[in-house]
Amino acid sequence: MSAPRTADLGFARLDLDREARTGTPEVIFAAGKTADQTVACLAALLEGSPTPFAWASRVDGATAAAIRERWPDAVVDEEAGCAFVGAVPDPVGEVLVLTAGTSDGPVAAEVAATLRACGVGCRRVDDVGVAGIHRVLAVAPDLGAADAVVVVAGMDGALPSVVAGLTDRLVVAVPTSVGYGAAFEGLAALLTMLTACAPGVLVVNIDNGFGAGVAAARIARSAQR
Amino acid sequence: MSAPRTADLGFARLDLDREARTGTPEVIFAAGKTADQTVACLAALLEGSPTPFAWASRVDGATAAAIRERWPDAVVDEEAGCAFVGAVPDPVGEVLVLTAGTSDGPVAAEVAATLRACGVGCRRVDDVGVAGIHRVLAVAPDLGAADAVVVVAGMDGALPSVVAGLTDRLVVAVPTSVGYGAAFEGLAALLTMLTACAPGVLVVNIDNGFGAGVAAARIARSAQR
Amino acid sequence: MSAPRTADLGFARLDLDREARTGTPEVIFAAGKTADQTVACLAALLEGSPTPFAWASRVDGATAAAIRERWPDAVVDEEAGCAFVGAVPDPVGEVLVLTAGTSDGPVAAEVAATLRACGVGCRRVDDVGVAGIHRVLAVAPDLGAADAVVVVAGMDGALPSVVAGLTDRLVVAVPTSVGYGAAFEGLAALLTMLTACAPGVLVVNIDNGFGAGVAAARIARSAQR
Amino acid sequence: MSAPRTADLGFARLDLDREARTGTPEVIFAAGKTADQTVACLAALLEGSPTPFAWASRVDGATAAAIRERWPDAVVDEEAGCAFVGAVPDPVGEVLVLTAGTSDGPVAAEVAATLRACGVGCRRVDDVGVAGIHRVLAVAPDLGAADAVVVVAGMDGALPSVVAGLTDRLVVAVPTSVGYGAAFEGLAALLTMLTACAPGVLVVNIDNGFGAGVAAARIARSAQR
Amino acid sequence: MSAPRTADLGFARLDLDREARTGTPEVIFAAGKTADQTVACLAALLEGSPTPFAWASRVDGATAAAIRERWPDAVVDEEAGCAFVGAVPDPVGEVLVLTAGTSDGPVAAEVAATLRACGVGCRRVDDVGVAGIHRVLAVAPDLGAADAVVVVAGMDGALPSVVAGLTDRLVVAVPTSVGYGAAFEGLAALLTMLTACAPGVLVVNIDNGFGAGVAAARIARSAQR
Amino acid sequence: MSAPRTADLGFARLDLDREARTGTPEVIFAAGKTADQTVACLAALLEGSPTPFAWASRVDGATAAAIRERWPDAVVDEEAGCAFVGAVPDPVGEVLVLTAGTSDGPVAAEVAATLRACGVGCRRVDDVGVAGIHRVLAVAPDLGAADAVVVVAGMDGALPSVVAGLTDRLVVAVPTSVGYGAAFEGLAALLTMLTACAPGVLVVNIDNGFGAGVAAARIARSAQR
Amino acid sequence: MSAPRTADLGFARLDLDREARTGTPEVIFAAGKTADQTVACLAALLEGSPTPFAWASRVDGATAAAIRERWPDAVVDEEAGCAFVGAVPDPVGEVLVLTAGTSDGPVAAEVAATLRACGVGCRRVDDVGVAGIHRVLAVAPDLGAADAVVVVAGMDGALPSVVAGLTDRLVVAVPTSVGYGAAFEGLAALLTMLTACAPGVLVVNIDNGFGAGVAAARIARSAQR
Amino acid sequence: MSAPRTADLGFARLDLDREARTGTPEVIFAAGKTADQTVACLAALLEGSPTPFAWASRVDGATAAAIRERWPDAVVDEEAGCAFVGAVPDPVGEVLVLTAGTSDGPVAAEVAATLRACGVGCRRVDDVGVAGIHRVLAVAPDLGAADAVVVVAGMDGALPSVVAGLTDRLVVAVPTSVGYGAAFEGLAALLTMLTACAPGVLVVNIDNGFGAGVAAARIARSAQR
């Protein structure tokens, strides 16, 4: 393995060849960084990457402002907490993103933003939880048209079990921290999804829209090859 | 409150007026008792109760044999691990008992045995988990005919959420210890049911078919009054 | 199953036939929604539902203000965090709501508000925890007059075990997050209630006054049929 | 502090002055030891202690046989799993030991055996759980006659909360591993007791009859001084 | 049992005979109450109790101010978060209160305030954790002069194990939420104390200085009888 | 949705159209069934399915013997605990299965058996854990040749994080219950994989080789379309 | 053991001979103390210690200001939250400190500050997590030059397993609370490190840079003796 | 990094250069392997390693017999569950191994066996738990003579906190699964050790005598260089 190129900023060591190696562009996870650190990382990526594009997730208001100040034409997706700098890639394929309830929206938005950054198309249908099973059945005909299905659900996290029984597509399940009490910040939904009685369900961390998006993008790109 | 009559066996203090007070006959929970203790408790109940009937749950083979030796016409339900001595009450009303999978059978059997002991009718439909949602939809038309619905499910425990969205009957949810790994001996199903996205779901302890049966019997008797 | 009518607001998919199907009017859970979203949902429900009534739970100050601005004669129950728009249904039957301590009040208020929205009567007695068992015994004579009993308790959560041994009514137990340390945000009370030594206890999620109210309403309606 | 005398057996370092220092005779906890090790420890204690008495807890059948072989007049309490060698001290004072259910018996027996070894009197009343609250009220008049009250309970562990509200005596609460599912091997009862809504409740480890007995003995001896 | 007298404030049901029955004056736990509710409770207790004294714990700044406004000569212990109204009882006996570290101070202060309200004397020695074992040994000679010892410790919670091996007095162990990471808000200290290798240790809830104080007061009063 | 065909055996309700609907043949999960029940299910599947093939997982010795008695040419994979009856489908594509240690072998075998039943090719490389990172680097060149990579690991579960950083293929991570102490029956590995610092990792339940196999098969089939 | 000298401030009991006894200077843990208490402790240490140096950890802005006001030439390390008063000891030896990601920086800074206070040299390399394994391999040649290696990692905590397989130096692993969801405030990383598949890894509490620094300093001093 | 030499047995991939790279000889962890697999691994190590020595841990009776059959002069340490084949290295330096109680013996034996395999001297003192603190003080003078101290303790796990306050040597703490109830299979001791109030304590997995031995050996070798 020849060593990948790295941009060493002292506090961070950016992986300039990640996209070449893993098919997914490096992302700047802004949650543990100052606004200045995030801007510096984006700048280094833009300069060093083979593609004129960089992006950051978990961006708060202050960081979004700093990004816009540096790159006035940056695009900030406020629901998703993501910022895009440079040329967003053209989308190929399509991933279907479902949410169980309205409160799961921000996580679904992060999935969608990640797909966008990875150059994969996305269709989103919200609030189709199993308490009104007819809402799930209504989307059943669309499942087969997608390259993969991402299901975002908090509380009981039951939606992926139902969806996976209706399709031959891979279901990427994202538990969310929506709920209270015995939802235990998403633990209930996480355990539900891990023990889903239907096979074909794969799980990411609680609220991890980014991880689900990257995974779905890999599947979609693989199917489009 | 005048003090209820009690049969004091030293190691146990039997509540002879429980049925009069709570509508449910006292049960002998055999799991923590020797075969001799269980037999002695049943004998004391038969002698002291106003009705010529007594029963025990969580009965193993040795205890079942001891009961049969003492009362040759005792009825032992082996799937449920329950034994009935004396005249089983005639059933009124009907409770619908659903299981998500075949392995949930023994717990559903305990629900059914408890309903029998409480004098309430029972209809049972097995293996209608949400991975094949058409199986759930197939029982939907029957929900309204029941006084209450008991749903028994392990693994992801998702079935009660779906059922409760299809009916105006109360759903008594029983998580089971069926599953492995992140099912954590029924914890996953328990949390799922407690956080069910559909209202109208009430939950009992893991594998507690007895508790679900008593509760459903109370609802059925209330509806039949 | 003919597909229920749905009001699709994009971010939400409202179930206009929920009351017809489940006997309980759809509620807007405001906790994960903006004030505007909650108002839009209430408006859509009012317009699309067969009954001229809609309500929301987990309403904070800002959302309550927005509701009042849109519907000046809306009724806001501040202790419960609930808002009612339109004609509250007339109550039938009666549910007895008990709290173990003063701090359990807001959850009991949510139970009462839910019963109100469901058109069921409610009587509430506060601060009858088991540390002063005479307080529990004092309400014992009233238990038989109720269609169901809801018991709200935090800390040790011991009250439902005692109450269920005194009555033939179903006891709906609501653990609350009242307490500190080993109360673990309501987990201690939840486990106590799930393992109650008296049968006839059914449990809902921590602080879930709404769920307890819906369940008690179903029982009361069933008993009144 | 002058160093206490120690009997060094290599695998164990026995504290010969423990009784002088702490008022409680050293016990041999047999659970992690071979039968030979337990016998050797008892012999060393008998030889080195100021009093002609030694005892062991958590004794299984093989170890009990080995003890009886070495000391034919040893007393073995099989329910408690304890063995006494030499002159059991005369009892002073009285501790009241209550159990919630029949299955809690072995732990209560360990409490009683420990009190016996510590030279404190014991009265035991079994199966007075809160599901039949009249059974608790029946023992209320006896509480004031005891130097301390030990309450042994599994499942919901609710009994100490009720007892402590009825007396000015200290209540030593012992959670047991009796129960299943959400009882989590005694965790539910432990949390209940730690969060008891009545003050005056102190808690020991799950199934720790020995610890409860030593504590109650200290209180009784203190009250008798 | 003749029913104890109760002051019914609607939101609270005060136990006016608690001191007569349990030897400990009723306390107003202010944490879940408004300042007005706490003042109303104190007033009702003062009026209805046989002794001219009332007190409240977990009092914040606003509530303390409200108490002082109503009773200008009320005494507020700010470290403990407790307020005393009326005549504090004269102390009898003495309880020794030890802390492992400086940060455990507020919990120890609540122990001391409770002892004061219960009319029991208190001596407090701070910061004697086991990391400097000589500090523990330095207090060893004082242990025998106390009626009981309360040990307050966070982090590893190891101090009670050492103290209980040095004395024949009962050790009341109070785990605190001091620490971070794997201290898990006091859980580590709680488990340590429950599994203490020395007998004679009894445990209360995390940060429960009140419960430890009441228990120690009962022991001291018992020893002074 | 036209209702799928079902074989109703009373204790089980087999989904005869699962393969048509989800691309994966129905499996008989033998763990909760008797040998007779498993055989009956396999027979019903063989009779009712469009393809002359059926299989079962979690098969123990007794069940394997019963299968062989009924179908003498059945193939039993003992390491995997799986049995195949009828014509195993021809494999397309290839999934690479890696294990971290020798003890992870049986779970990897279940992955391989599932791929076989789904008609997908499999290459397996064992014992390439990160403690000898050169072993991981040695397989790096092979990653790109696979349609998907399944990584099976217990203990620290660190292997998927490293592998996902080396490839653009999706990594399906299977935590195993290998390990002791703080491995907590696979919980440590599960959490590690859910929080993997490299994206592109999707997780199944602990020891769920079946689920990983089905998911990998869906990806491989999608890539081969 | 002659009793160590102690500075008794009432709220604290400072160990003036700790450095002589344990080789590590006493530290003032400021998190549970007021600014005044921290300053008083530092002053007492400076006065009573054999060396003209004192320091505090977990210092917030207010406490840092109070320290600077009292000792204008105090050095405050803001990233680490540490303050040094007096003459920092000259460093001997060298410890290599690695972080998995940028967000782990503050904990690594606490390690470095502790090493500084203990008089041990430190080299720090940031952001070498296993998702880009080439970054780990790049530091491999430097491992043998260090007296010990401290590895600071949140999320999956996988870095120590890889590093320990590359060196014969002891690896001190520090889990951090970096991450979300199933990272459970550092629990995931903690379990990963405890179950590391490579031996030679020792673990400290979550975010405990101080403890890791002291341990590494002891190893370095031992190696330099 | 030139790739280390590997012995590929199919089911295992042995690291022949581990000792050269990490200073510790490769061990065969027998717990997850058949007797034949363990023997084959030992044979391959003996053949491929630069030193004529190999060993295995977690060896049960059957595996020990198989080893003895192949290598009649193999040494089996039954208390430790370890087997040594070939020339055990001569010991350098000395590690002091302490146990809190007799039941911790087997884990201490694994520590000692690992030190032996690593060529480091060992002195072991058993049963010096903190309940008799004089036993700890009695070993205090020996601490300074050791290169490192390993402390093995179950139940409350308090011993390392005390020992680390008495010495400048590194303390390697090994929690054991000794205890019951709230000891939670070693979790209580693990948390105690992680939150030890004295610095200089590093922790390994529950019952991981092997890991503690390797770490202590690294420290001892480093100190002896």
TrEMBL record, chains A, B, C, D, E, F, G, H:
InterPro entries recorded for this chain? P2CMN_synthase_LarB, PurE_dom
Q: Which residues form the signal peptide?
A: none
What residue stretches are annotated with the PurE domain? 93-225
The record's annotation in Gene3D superfamilies points to: 3.40.50.1970
SMART domains cross-referenced by the UniProt entry: AIRC
Coiled-coil blocks: none
This chain's protein is named Nickel pincer cofactor biosynthesis protein LarB
Q: The organism's lineage?
A: Bacteria, Bacillati, Actinomycetota, Actinomycetes, Geodermatophilales
Gene name?
A: larB
